[in-house]
Amino acid sequence: MASTADFKNGLCLVMNNDIYSIVEFQHVKPGKGAAFVRTKLKSLRSGKTLEKTFNAGEKVTTARVEKRPFQFLYADDMGYNFMNTETFEQISLEERLIERPKLLKDGQNVDILIHDETETPLSVELPPFVELMITYTEPGIKGDTATNAQKPATLETGATVMVPLFVEQDIMIRVDTRDGSYSERVK
């Protein structure tokens, strides 16, 4: 059990027979009335987000969740296959448990959230940034810029991201996995 004073991003709560992770929270003390905590929660089983308001000091049930290091091996028709880097055991997960599966590259290290009591995988956390090679993009035409012009680029994993016009084919770029956007060229 925890109270609203213990809230922090990433804390996992048990509510409505599901496990939710706190994405963001805000303590609010209005001039009139009691204080409350406004939260944005993400279901670790379905991936849906919801907003919920708790009274200040309200008790909530926390879930024991553990992050374990895994390495992505390959994807096949059965799912996405990962290997635990400590025990070398392999597991296969459904695509719905991965936030942006198109950004997974063979051999990439990820963290998998596992429910301690049932030993079931809940979600896959990619690193904040991944470095991927551009396999195809149209060449940028000089003088074809208005302001902040972008073009689509296909990456080695099959994902498509919008990149600036000066970025060319066969260049390594850094992609933000939180929103799937171009970050910078890799030198």
From TrEMBL:
Keywords recorded for this protein, A-Z: Cytoplasm, Elongation factor, Protein biosynthesis
Pathway(s) of this molecule: Protein biosynthesis; polypeptide chain elongation
Domain Elongation factor P C-terminal: 130-185
InterPro entries in the cross-refs: Elong-fact-P_C, NA-bd_OB-fold, Rib_uL2_dom2, Transl_elong_fac_P/YeiP, Transl_elong_KOW-like, Transl_elong_P/YeiP_cen, Transl_elong_P/YeiP_CS, Transl_elongation_fac_P
Compartments it resides in: Cytoplasm
GO cellular component, one term: cytosol
Database matches in PROSITE patterns: EFP
Residue stretches making up the Translation elongation factor P/YeiP central domain: 67-122
A molecular function (GO) term: translation elongation factor activity
One Pfam family matching this protein: EFP
SMART domains: EFP, Elong-fact-P_C
UniProt superkingdom: Bacteria
Biological-process GO terms, alphabetical: peptide biosynthetic process
Protein family per UniProt: Belongs to the elongation factor P family.
Functional summary from the UniProt entry: Involved in peptide bond synthesis. Stimulates efficient translation and peptide-bond synthesis on native or reconstituted 70S ribosomes in vitro. Probably functions indirectly by altering the affinity of the ribosome for aminoacyl-tRNA, thus increasing their reactivity as acceptors for peptidyl transferase.
Protein name, UniProt field: Elongation factor P
Recorded name of the encoding gene: efp
